[in-house]
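Researcher: Please translate sequence to structure tokens.
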Amino acid sequence: MTHSVELIPHSRPTLGEAEAKAVASVLASGQVAQGPQTDAFERRVAELVGVRGGVAVSSGTVALEVALLALGIGSGDEVILPTYVCVAPWLAVTRVGATPKLVDIEPQSYNIDPASVRQALSPRTKAVIVPHLFGLPADLTALQSYGVPLIEDCAQTVGALERGRRVGSVGRVTVCSFYATKLLCAGEGGMVLSNDAGLLEQGRALREYDESDRLNPLSYNRKLTDLQAALGLAQVNRFQDFARRRTAIAARYGAALSTLGLTLPVVPDGRTHVYYRYVVRIPESAGPLDGMVQRLEGRGIQCRRPVFRPIHRFLGAAGFPVSDDAHVRALSLPLYPTLTDAEADLVIRALCEEFR
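Model: Translation complete:
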């Protein structure tokens, strides 16, 4: 007779009474499409990131496309981005007609490698997309020194600091995602953020076409609804509590897993970590990562590759050894504000049984 094991999921949204009340209030108002809640959400996220303003759109991928278009990037231009990331940046660059130029990552931070960016620069380079992965900022100081516009992607790292500067406040333009399991959840949605009033105005022109004084063939319906914005606003109000809980779980993991031979997350000098993901690197002696994932799931612990597949592997390209190593050895553990201490201890116990 087999017994089912109750699964601790790798990710789950953190939703409660505040979010339910916020959405119910919007339903009662009758204003469910883009409206005052969206305006308020834009202001609050801009304040959280530390920039002048934001333009809410329908997804994080759309936010990337709008950011690229607002910067005037298109055919004949090159945009540098890391290969070890979800496919959204590559898709956005391709859709605006520009050429994605892939580079490798840093071995410890998993973020885009500034040295690789420097080697990839050309006269056609018009921007560098900088995804801050797993809650840790990329080396913005080094990337800034190249004089190329940075598009920060802080979907996973809102609230983190790089040399005292808030992630998202450094680049020419920033994007966020509000997917269900991101740091801020609106179910879906994204935002373009900037200190440049002209870029924000261009972003709004690209987001919608109604009541415009001129025809813009690039304008599209990319709007966020007030239902989603109300959900997002409730999340912003709880953001600091979320951040404290994530840090506490990460500390619990770090204290318990430090003797198992795993490579644990590092925080370079001058940066802070908000632990969107807790990513460990398993030793080669542990065998294939897929087998590890299956064994842990059999113990009731759902873990995942933090990046499904590096982009260069879709393209059949080579020359990205650090990303290849991360693909076969990096493992993301459950970490989210509603993960209880008891659940975290079950994750720890399962890993101890695997590695001791």
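Researcher: Any highlights?
Model: Residues 239-257 form the longest helix (19 residues).
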